[in-house]
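Lab notebook, bench 4. The sequencing result for the construct came back, and we need a structural model before the next group meeting so we can plan mutations. Quick request posted to the team channel:

Model the 3D structure of this chain.
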Amino acid sequence: MPSYAGPPVASRPGEVASTLRLLAYLALTIALVILDHRGGWLSQVRAQANVVTQPLWWLAGLPGRLTTRVQDDASTRTGLIEENRRLRNEMLVANARLARLQTAAADNAQLRALLGVKTSRGLDVQLAPVLDIDLAPGRQRLVLDAGSRDGATLGQAVIDAGGLMGQIIDTTPAHATVLLLTDPDHAVPVVVARNGVRLIVYGRGRSDLLELADVPLNSGVEVGDVLVTSGLGGRFPAGFPVGTIAALRPDDSHAFLVGDVTPAARLDRGRDVLLLKSAPPQPLPPADPARFLPEATTPPEGTGTQAPATSSPAPAQAPPQAQNPAPAHAPAATAPGGTQGGPSGNAATPPATPPQEPQR
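Done. Here's the predicted structure in token form:
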């Protein structure tokens, strides 16, 4: 008995049509491939299609590019901020080092100037750093980082590369106090370097100004004259610059002149000063020889017998007296006259005393 296979299956019309379309597409594809291979016209179509689709690709990739750009900008800004901070710190450090080098250069120049003063003048000096400064109107002082254990003594002269600064008025084992020329309680005997006129300079409580008082009208002192220490009083050695006359005017009585003097020393600046231990004798500016004539002619009026003995030493002793830094001991210069009068049996001291009074 034959097996039952079921009723015959008939092909559907839709499936046949699909198969035919597939075969047609395959044939068209093969034809296009052959034509593109031989003629290359399909490449031109693809190029035109790329041109048309390029804006679409640009729009599609825009979000990604914006995201990348933002990330790059953020990282770049962070890096620039860090670099700017680092460079700023380096600039501050460099400026601090530059300022320190400039200060060191200024200190070096000052020390070279002080060393030049010591070398050129042959002075025995000691370098002392400035520890504190007091430039109040009524008090002009310096405190030095050098005391009695370092060799500082009372009355010791203090100078710098410009000239005289003042004197030590108080010492401790570690420090010394300097009274500046500009202190109202300070006065310095000076001479005019041009003509040798003796004057006195006073402090006015200002670090940039000194006062010249009681200047005779016929002294010949002029604006611009340089004042140096005279050595009178024995406190300051002769020949150290004190200042320059900046102005002259009559006083209230119109009998004398008063003047303003610009200090030669840099009283309000500098970190080091020089303590003067000893100084070689320096000649004073030449003075008018007629000023010493009364001193030379006075001794013969005392006694006629001693005129030959005292008339010749008197002119020779007068100029050294101006150079002597301690004129308080000037009467010792009359000792030769006294010894010559000793053997005669008369008192030799009274005739020797009158010649010294005009010198004072």
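Confidence is low (pLDDT under 50) at residues 287-360.
Will bring this to the meeting.
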